[in-house]
Amino acid sequence: MTSAQTEIWTILRLIEWGTSYFREKRIDSPRLTIELMLAHILNLKRFDLYVQFDRPMLEDELLKLRSMVKQRVAREPLQYILGEAEFHGRRFSVRPGVLIPRPETELLVDEALRRTKSLRCLDVGTGSGCIAITISLERPETEVVAIDLSEEAIEIALENAERLKAGLIDFQNIDFFDDEAVKSLGSFDLIISNPPYVSTNEMSELQIEVRDYEPRIAVIDGNDGLSFYRRLVELAPVLLRREGEIFLELGYGTANAVRQMFEKGGFQVEIYSDYDRIERILRAYPQPASESPL
Fold first, then answer.
1. Tell me: the pLDDT tens digits for 106-137?
2. Lower CB density within 10 Å: C or N end of the chain?
3. Could you tell me if 129 and 24 lie in one domain?
4. Do 220 and 199 touch, CB atoms closer than 8 A?
5. d(CA 269, CA 259)
6. C-beta neighbour count of 89 within 10 angstroms
7. Does residue 159 share a domain with residue 224?
């Protein structure tokens, strides 16, 4: 892409150029990427680009685009470049201090909303607040508590809650492995989480976008990828009400191990698959007393 002083760059020409360039650099979804960048810079919806194909870009707009293109080619996630990510039909602000919301987590929320009528909900590792805020907006009668180890994540979640006009959500900067702090939260009808489930050994296999840019404490558990699940089984007698349910996102290939943990802990377990037919969501609820192995 050369200077606008010597050439005129229209929206259509930039879409064609960007698609080709990103494909050459092996960037996923090359046309979508350049279209989202242009829509962001021009403050347009993607559809509106198609009715303004002949619109020439201004020099300052081209400068912004060049910067974004360089960032993306360096494998910085597009959501961080744009400063936002879509989740459940809403736009959430995201920065490198929080995990980028993903479609699989939308499925997690959908299953929880479909199968429970929670009155009090705990979101563990809230990050951008996408789970807690979505539940609050979809179920305004639900009291939501959302915790995260990261102060920056809590700040971003609060910003999102205010901008999206969510109901009152109690965001707390808490370490889930701090017994006293966690037990002070009380008990819940629903516990939901997309926890860090990548093991230390799997770190090198992650996409560059995840490995080099997303917060490690939100991705990697520093152990075998199962630490959070063990902790939740341990705390469930304190945190989960008698008729309560737990919904968790699962890492690839961990479904059987996590299922066994919860079954040994006295839970009935169901596993649901994601769009790629990967076992991705765990639903756990206490067995009737007569069926419990404990």
1. 999 999 999 888 799 999 999 999 999 999 99
2. C
3. no
4. yes
5. 6
6. 8
7. yes
Domain that holds residue 24: 11-74
Q: Please report the pLDDT score of residue 240 as a whole number.
A: 97
**How many other C-beta atoms are found inside a 10 Å radius of the C-beta of residue 172?**
15
Burial (CB count within 10 angstroms: exposed 0-12, middle 13-18, buried 19+), residue 28: exposed
- The whole model's pTM is what? 0.91
Residues present in the chain in total? 294
Rounded CA-CA distance 219/199 in Å is 9
Q: Across residues 157-176, what is the average pLDDT? A: 97
Q: How many domains does the chain fold into?
A: 2
What tokens appear for 123 in the block?
């979101």
The string of pLDDT tens digits covering residues 47-82 is 999 999 999 999 999 999 999 999 999 999 999 999
CATH of the domain at 207: 3.40.50.150
- 17 and 105 in a common domain: no
Compute the average pLDDT of residues 89-117. Answer: 95
Whether 248 and 280 map to the same domain: the answer is yes
CA separation for the pair 286, 294 (Å, rounded)? 11
Coil/strand/helix, residue 275: coil
Chain-centroid distance of CA 225 in Å reads 17
**3-state SS, one letter per residue, for 74-102:** CCCCHHHHHCEEEECCEEEECCCCCCCCC
